[in-house]
Amino acid sequence: MKNSTGALLGTMVPGPINYVWGAPVATLTVHPDQSLGEISPLIYGQFIEHLGRAIYGGIYDDQKHRFRPDVLEKVRDLHPPLLRYPGGTVTKIYHWKDGVGKHRPVRKNLIWGGLDNNHVGTDEFMQYCRQLGAAPFLTVNMSTGTAEEAAEWVEYCNGTGTYYATQRQKNGHAAPYQVRYWGLGNEEAAKEDAGTLQNPQDYIKKAWYYAKLMKLQDPSIQLILVGDKPDWNQQILQELHPICDYLSLHLYASSKPGDPASLFTSIAAMEASIKATAAQIKEYAPATVETFSKWYRFPPRQQPVKIAIDEWGIWEAGGRGAYNLEMDYTWNHALGVAAFLNMFQRHAAAIGLATWAQTVNVLAPIMTNETTSICQTIYYPLALYRKLCGPTSVAATIAGAEHLDVAASTDGKTLTVAIVQPRGQAIDIRLDAPTTGSWTAHELTAPSLESMNTLQTPDTNVVSYQKRALPYGTTTYTVAGHSIVLLQAPLR
Question: What residues does the Alpha-L-arabinofuranosidase C-terminal domain cover (predicted)?
Fold first, then answer.
């Protein structure tokens, strides 16, 4: 099968499903009437950074001065609702004015190495977002930048009639970009990075100033504030919660050498981080802001604080390229991605957005060389979940096979149950859910856990997709070993 998501997600494979006449091994029970929260469409976002070949040689062909059409097609088929830029850690040395207008200075990338010619900047990023149908998410420089610079970026993107809005118009972009999502820095607690805000009180003082000037430019923008360890989060939430729409959380899973199953232990630890952060938000950030001085001259946040998992993914040792971040992902990693997405659904009430880090070449679902591009194994669960999962998370439990990873969602008409089997054996489950009509199974499998797609054989796709209509009245389903399956049926 070629690396085409159109082919992957549109093929119908007729035929009966494996059927068991004896007692089922496990029971999957779904309660569509027990909502776990609304699943934000923004949890399916992506991320690009000025890092290695993520932009130049990734989304952008610097020789032809255009976005790579082969890559654009693949990113479009992911349907990302949100795209984060320009970082990441590089935010700490990035100055947006270098990347607009005709005269763009070449700068040394002090964070990731190499040179940045700034051929891709704000206007190009906005163009890319529009071609994808994705909302832009910008992070501002709180290290070598200033609050005035950040506010002027808001003015450039969202203003009308003012100096920087006029500069945007002169650069060929008359209409405001209406950027709603703005990150105040990135991982500011990290002492190794450029910047001086490792003390949370220093970050709080500076974040207030940034927020004031940026909100005075556009009161409607939403702010993502930097999260970190519990003590940091507590102080941020206690003192900044009136202007904190989202608190960031970064999650990178990995496995131990020679132990693919350890990846799922790592992912389980990520779930504990989500629960702990959600508990802190509940304790230190009231759902509504009751008192907020009118002299701020802009309103406080309008909704409860949510978690922004604005960097998540699988980060293993042994990659190539800049900082060894160009990874070959196996089928085991694809199973891990599906487990992550199930986790996001189960915690839908707490999570407001998420962006996979990153999109092309760097810890990425898409890899390129000078002549071609491929979709890695992790691309396919990302695409399938975005296509099929509903907007409301509902309760689902598994008895008798607790190692299966399960989440359920609905749009009020169709129930979607997502199952990940990280182990090698097939397992039979009884489907206990108030549905009517027939189930449809969307199955992703691969020959082995080590299977991967490579640039050396770009026309070979190790990922197999099958869409099967189960016989009417089927109540038992066989989950294949090392598989991802999304089961769908009409609700009763």
Answer: 310-483
Please tell me whether the peptide bond between 127 and the residue prior to it is cis, using omega within 30 degrees of 0. no
- DSSP reduced 3-state for 374: strand
Given the structure tokens 């500069």, which residue do they identify?
A: 167
Question: Which residue in 85, 86, 49, 89 sits closest to 186, CA to CA?
Answer: 89
Residue with tokens 């999962």: 389
Dist CA 10 CA 2 (whole Å): 13
Q: Taking Cα atoms as reference points, which of 388, 408, 390 lies closest to residue 398? A: 408
Structure token pair of residue 226: 């930097």
Task: Classify residue 70 by burial, with Cβ atoms within 10 Å: 0-12, 13-18, 19+.
Answer: middle
Main-chain dihedrals φ then ψ at residue 394, nearest 5 degrees: -130, 160
**SS3 assignment, position 417:** strand
Q: Which residues pair with 465 in a beta bridge?
A: 444
Both tokens assigned to 453? 């797609």
Task: Quote the CA–CA distance of 465 and 80 in Å, as a whole number.
Answer: 21
Q: Which two tokens stand for residue 456?
A: 């050396």
CA dihedral 104, 120, 93, 91 (to 10 degrees): 150
Model confidence pLDDT, tens digit, residues 433-464: 999 999 999 999 999 999 999 999 999 999 99
CB-based contact 222:180 (threshold 8 Å)? yes
Cβ atoms of 8 and 444 closer than 8 Å:
no
Q: Residue 309 and residue 305: Cα distance in Å, rounded? A: 13
The pairing of beta strand 440-445 with beta strand 464-469? antiparallel
Distance CA 416, CA 407 (A): 8
Rounded to whole angstroms, how far apart are CA atoms 58 and 72? 10
Task: Give the model confidence (pLDDT) of 410-430 as tens digits.
Answer: 999 999 999 999 999 999 999
End-to-end CA distance of the chain: 36
Phi-psi group of 67: left, alpha or beta (phi > 0 → left; psi -120 to 50 → alpha; rest → beta): beta
pLDDT per residue over 192-233, tens digit each? 999 999 999 999 999 999 999 999 999 999 999 999 999 999
**Rounded Cα–Cα distance for residues 272 and 267 (Å):** 9
The counts of H helices and E strands in the chain are 10, 23
Any idea what DSSP says for residue 362?
A: S
Which token pair is 12?
Answer: 């119908």
pLDDT at 24: 62
Radius of gyration of the chain (CA): 23
